[in-house]
Amino acid sequence: FFFFQAEDGIRDAQESRGLGDVYKRQTQSTWGLYKSEYIKMSRRFDSKVNSFSAEGKLLQVEYAVEAINKSRPGIGALIKDGAILGAVKDVVSALLERTRQSEKIYCLDKNIYCVVSGVSADGNYLIDYARGLAQDYRFQMREYINVEKLVVDICDQKQYYTQFGGSRLFGAAFIYAGYDTTHGFQLYNSDPSGNYAGWKATAIGTNSIAANSFLKDEYQEDINLDQGLDLVVKSLSKTLDTSSPSADKIELLVLQLDENKQVKARFLNEKEITELLKSCLLYTSDAADDLLCVDLGGRRIIKKKK
Q: Where are the alpha helices (DSSP H) in 142-178?
């Protein structure tokens, strides 16, 4: 009797354990289905550019801004009689042939230049689009386009791609510097959402927060060309991983008016940038120990030690 009772108890325990395993598998299956649906629903906000998240954000715009924050930096600053644009070149490989044109600073029209940061292909498309707008305006109005009007037209094109599904945002940010007879020299920047703002000095790209913080503390209105170049180079150094940048990785452009009141753009060559880095005490070489920096009226002059 006791033997059969023990056998029945073992059989009941096995059956209950089997039912427990079935219930456990069903529970896991139900939770897995619920979890997959939950993840699918949460991904709807960042899979479509025209869908707001629960926090009221367009996540694709934030992702595009994050892509720009991981690209090479660019800086712009207004000076007393012009504007300065600076950028760090993309050095992919030493085997690449050097380009004859600028890698980060582009001409949109004779009176407007820009710095690009982000996806190069997106930036090239928008640059061609802006050049077409500038040429159409000059053909129709027989004058150069106003700086802010061109910026607004580019930002309208950017904003257009934030309202329709199935499209991707432009992963490129710009700093525009230009001149027109209405407002003189101006400086703007724009982001992938289509927003733009006017600045006296600003930075975009990698470590732009540190560069903007430095510009906020050091920038002064009505600075001259030498002071502006010194400010831009020091700001670029804040975005780099090295304390001694080389001249072949930096681009600098100066916009000023000539004697005929026409906009004149000039790129600094490597020799001029090297001397500028030395004057800012950011250049290190074997010959740097023999140099002496002398401050004359706010301008630093490099002389050899006797």
A: 147-160
